[in-house]
Amino acid sequence: MTTTDLPVPGLRSGTESVPAYTGDTAQTGKDFTSDQEVRWCPGCGDYAVLKAVQGFLPDLGLRRENIVFVSGIGCSSRFPYYLDTYGIHSIHGRAPTIATGIATAREDLSVWVVTGDGDALSIGGNHLIHTLRRNVNMTILLFNNRIYGLTKGQYSPTSEAGKITKSTPLGSVDHPFNPVSLALGAEATFVARTIDSDRKHLTSVLAAAAAHRGTALVEIYQNCPIFNDHAFDAVKDRDTKDEAIIGLVNGEPITFADGRLGLVRTATGAVEVAEIGAGDGQVDAADVLVHDAHAEDPSTAFAISRLTDSGGLHRAPVGIFRQVQRPTYDDQARAQVATAREAAAPQGDDVERLTALLHGSDTWTVD
Amino acid sequence: MSQQAPADRTVQQLDRVIIRFAGDSGDGMQLTGDRFTSESAALGNDLMTLPNYPAEIRAPQGTLPGVSSFQVHVADHDILTAGDAPDVLVAMNPAALRANVADLPRGATVIVDTHDFTTRNLSKAGYDADPLALLSEPGDPLAAYTVHPVDLTGMTVAAVKEFGLTRKDAARAKNMFALGLLSWMYGRSTAGTEEFLRRKFAKAPAVRDANLAAFAAGWAFGETTETFAVRYEVKPAALPPATYRNISGNTALAYGLVAAGVRSGLPVFLGSYPITPASDVLHELSKHKAFGVTTFQAEDEIAGIGAAYGAAYAGSLGVTTTSGPGVALKSEAIGLAVMTEIPLIVIDVQRGGPSTGLPTKTEQADLLQAMYGRNGEAPLPIVAPRSPGDCFHAALEAARIAVTHRTPVMLLSDGYLANGSEPWAVPSYDDLPAIDPGFADAPNHAGADSEDGAPTEFWPYLRNPETLARPWAVPGTPGLEHRIGGLEKGDGHGNISYDPANHDLMVRTRQAKVDRVADSLPPLEVDDPSGAAKVLVIGWGSTYGPIGAGCRRGRRAGHRVAQVHLRHLNPFPHDLGDILRRYDRVLVPEMNLGQLSTLLRARYLVDARPHTQVTGMPFKAADLAYAIGELVAEAEGVDVDLAALTGAAGAPADHEEVH
Fold first, then answer.
1. pLDDT given at position A335
2. CA angle B292-B297-B302, nearest 5°?
3. Residues 29 to 48 of B: which have CB under 8 A from any A CB?
4. What is the pTM of this model?
5. By the CB < 8 Å criterion, does A89 face chain B?
6. Is residue B391 packed enough to be buried (19+ CB in 10 Å), middle (13-18) or exposed (0-12)?
7. Which of B258, B268, B289 to mutate to test the interface with A (most CBs of A within 10 A)?
8. What is the DSSP letter of B12?
9. What is the average pLDDT value for chain A, to the nearest integer?
10. Does the CB of B245 have a partner CB in chain A at under 8 Å?
11. Which chain B residues touch A34 with a CB distance below 8 Å?
12. What is the mean pLDDT of chain B?
């Protein structure tokens, strides 16, 4: 098979083609709140994310009618019902496919997918990886509570091995996915992790994700108080979070625990946590890895993602792991159509060209 | 090259001829048949084709499983099928001879390439002895036929010597030698094929020249050798006045979708995953971006329909194409489209099943899957084309129903229609049905804040009182923001509802909405020339041709029989029940185990009798004529000479009148 060099469009924002809000009164979170009663369990982390999104959407400055939220199945997938935008609560695992159709058909829409660890990584795993590699312009919010909530407490593809649940009374023997590692391996151009209860961080990540042209995957650690309570205590608890959260800020050395700990490269190319200082076994501050989310090569981002505990969570990097530009599927697909239409225009309008197409090159007439 | 036969040759007039080209999968038999078809179309013959090839791309060379064939029926009158049995077989190797000879009637002509009749190849084909060595000897297995053994390969290699190809590459042009010979024998025009070869091999001049030379050599061989004493002529057919072209079912289907896009003003969005025999629709549509067509090759069948659904939600004409196994995978998404009432076209080019089944063979066993293959009560309209060219019109009809009635529509084509071809009267744009998207653009319901009862809010499930269709409100429309989804929706407002009475109402309403599609359908056309038939034959899809040919045979033998063919399988047209009840006997030929007959019996309580075949091949007209004859004898209490209907000597031809 032969290949052809595709034209490379210039750098563009994720919402550049979406009409801006031009109303007289400023939009507020209320404008994005539907009249439907929110029905998550008391204490569910989804409430915090919903509030944060409703508070953030006005800042996008887009027309409400040009925003579409698509979800799959699961607790978090009820999300679209509570937002006064266009929305589809679809079927299990398939939201990225529907969002792909919407985003490809309509450049003027801001497309969001709301999904969970079961929806995105189990039944919908195939769609997630292919959407990421295609780099369709959308933002995927992956609510990871490491459990199946809606079906009442079975282990999920992010549950730790050994987890005792309704379906694994002797402990799960499944090895979990690390969603960030998975996304990086699937050629994702934007991968981030944030936490439901940290509204400020969550909002800043959402802003960067929306501005990214291409598929932005945002993993949100989200607590399920009913079936997996305390799963994220380490990164939420005031006493432990400083040591548990490895904060990633582009261009900054990756240090945490009040600068006591930092990430350094090992001889094998992996990344590990080290104490910073001049003592025995400590590393010099100058040797601490400086975070580069824009690196074309995803190896370092991947190495950092491996510092996430796969068992019970005690430590995890949080922030934007990777943010690089690559032409999006939908921009290129639309460009091919536009170019073809332009090239064909001299041969007549659609009806004239359709008539020519239907006749083809070999016709005969019976009188 | 001359189109005139030399004076010393007899030219015999034929009203029709059925030719089958058979060879190894790599021998280019499909291309050869295709070219002969195009040459015949250019002459103005009516024609039907039946490609038949294995699922393997290259089965072991010289073996029976590797045999690929292409049958073409050309006639000077209106024909309906690719023919029951070939009058002429062109066999390129021992396996092709052995695999096809049983299909030949006595007296058929066999042109066979002797080149591969070696001990090894004979044994690969399962021959203990060389059948060509026994010609005209006692025990000649081919004694019933006129056999012309010709070293097609050897003569091809000699003819292309000057182009410096390897022996293997030189021999590959043998199909063009065979085509040249047959083109001479039947007086086909050669200019189209020459032009085709120049274009196809423009980048490989040596291959181009070799193919042209082989084609010319084949023609010259026919003209100079004394092997072939007779040339034949099949005059142009007296088809209804129109401009015609030759078209295959999958191409017609793709053109129908393009036309539906232009007619409706909607951009076409195809989400698809490659699958035999539907992939050619994806290939064809991907060429038509200039009409605003977007084609998305998805990671799987589910993503194909998911993307089409998403595009449809966003205001495109959403289409997904597949075959039976793909429909199984798409079922849940089809259910979502039923629940959310989104216009969507689902095209199933049926093949032999179940499971992987017979990917390259035809069958129509997905009707009940289309009807019922989803969880819950999930009705959707079903349409089926009846001939290759009719795929165009069926695609437009599917689009009309989907858009007008806000529903997924299933279109059931099949492998025979998809790959078969026929002359097609090119329609005029103005004759295409109108398709009006009628997008919602304003609130439709007076909310609590309405002062004068004027609409202030948008209710996504407020219905058109006539069609029961709900509004199609696409994102980007201000004031109509709303949420849809797979959970049951409250009547009117469309919010989630678990209310028992509401669910009962919504289930019945979705059914009623599909039922009301029948209000937009024209009366059925019953073909009952005598007006006094007691037997009705009813079918759907690609059986139209064989059933029609079977009916014609019956009528020419003096029997009365009526035919009706269904374009719409769900809902059935309003007048179907009355029509069925008008006849004493109803015969339902189907390439399944009786799926339509099951539906007809359940719906109308009539004794619809299944006549079924699941061989992966279309019905033979003779078999259907026999079944019809039996039923006529039973219904009218008369004796019917069944043998006369089955293709024995003097069998009635498939056409109504000799022109």
1. 97
2. 115
3. 38, 41-42, 44
4. 0.94
5. yes
6. buried
7. B289
8. E
9. 96
10. yes
11. 483
12. 94
A26 Cβ under 8 Å from any chain B Cβ = no
| A192 neighbors A320 (Cβ within 8 angstroms) | yes
Bin B132: left if φ > 0, else alpha if -120 < ψ < 50, else beta. Answer: alpha
Pairwise CA distance, residues B544 & B416, whole Å: 11
- Asked whether residue A21 is assigned to any structural domain, the reply reads no
Which strands form A255-256's sheet, in the order they lie side by side? Answer: A255-256, A261-265, A271-275
pLDDT band, very low/low/confident/very high, at B647 (cuts 50, 70, 90):
low
Residue B254 sits at the chain A interface (C-beta within 8 Å)? no
Q: What is the dihedral of CA B352, B353, B357, B360, to 10 degrees?
A: 20
Band of the pLDDT at B3, cuts 50, 70, 90?
very low
Query: A105, B316: Cβ pair inside 8 Å?
Result: yes
Indicate whether A167 belongs to any domain: yes
pLDDT given for residue B229 in this prediction: 84
Mean pLDDT of A279-285: 94
B194 touches chain A (CB under 8 A): no
ipTM for this model: 0.97
B164 and B32, same domain (yes or no): yes
Report the CATH number at residue A46: 3.40.50.970
DSSP calls for B210-273: HHHHHHHHHHHHHHH-SS--EEEEEPPP-PPSEEEEEEEHHHHHHHHHHHHHHHHTPPEEEEE-
**A109 shares contact with chain B (CB less than 8 Å):** yes
With an 8 Å Cβ cutoff, are A127 and B306 in contact? yes
What is the pLDDT, as a whole number, of residue A4? 76
Domain range for B14 is 10-234
Q: Is residue A78 part of a domain?
A: yes
Both B187 and B257 in one domain: the answer is no
In-domain check, residue A359: no
Whether A197 has a pLDDT exceeding 90, the answer reads: yes
Q: Are B349 and B204 members of one domain? A: no
**From CA B489, how far away is CA B109, in angstroms rounded?**
66
**What is the domain range of residue A100?**
29-247+311-340
Q: Say yes or no for a CB contact (<8 Å) between B306 and A334.
A: no
- Residue A306 touches partner B, C-beta closer than 8 Å: no
* Residues B205, B229 within the same domain: yes
Contact A354 B312 (CB under 8 A): no
Whether B1 is in a domain gets the answer no
Give the total number of structural domains in chain A. Answer: 1
Among residues B431, B460, B485, the one where a domain terminates is B431
Mutate to test the interface with B, among A70, A90, A113, A130 (most CBs of B within 10 A): A90
B278-317 residues touching A, CB cutoff 8 A: 288-294, 296, 298-300, 302-316
3-state SS assignment for residue B621: helix
Contact between A88 and B245 using a beta-carbon 8 Å cutoff: no
Distance in angstroms (rounded) separating the CA atoms of residues A85 and A67? 6
pLDDT band at B658 (very low <50, low <70, confident <90, very high): very low
State mean pLDDT over B337-358: 98
Overall average pLDDT of the B38-55 stretch: 91
| A105 contact residues in B (CB cutoff 8 A) | 267, 269, 294, 310-311, 314-316
Tell me if chain B has a CB within 8 Å of the CB of A218.
no
Asked whether residue B478 is assigned to any structural domain, the reply reads no
**B492 in contact with A, Cβ within 8 Å:** no
Q: Is residue B633 part of a domain?
A: yes
Helix (H) or strand (E) holding B538: strand B535-540
Q: How many domains does chain B have?
A: 3
Whether residue B395 lies inside any domain: the answer is: yes
Instruction: Write out pLDDT tens, residues A103-145.
Output: 999 999 999 999 999 999 999 999 999 999 999 999 999 999 9
Contact between chains at A333 and B294 (C-beta distance less than 8 A): yes
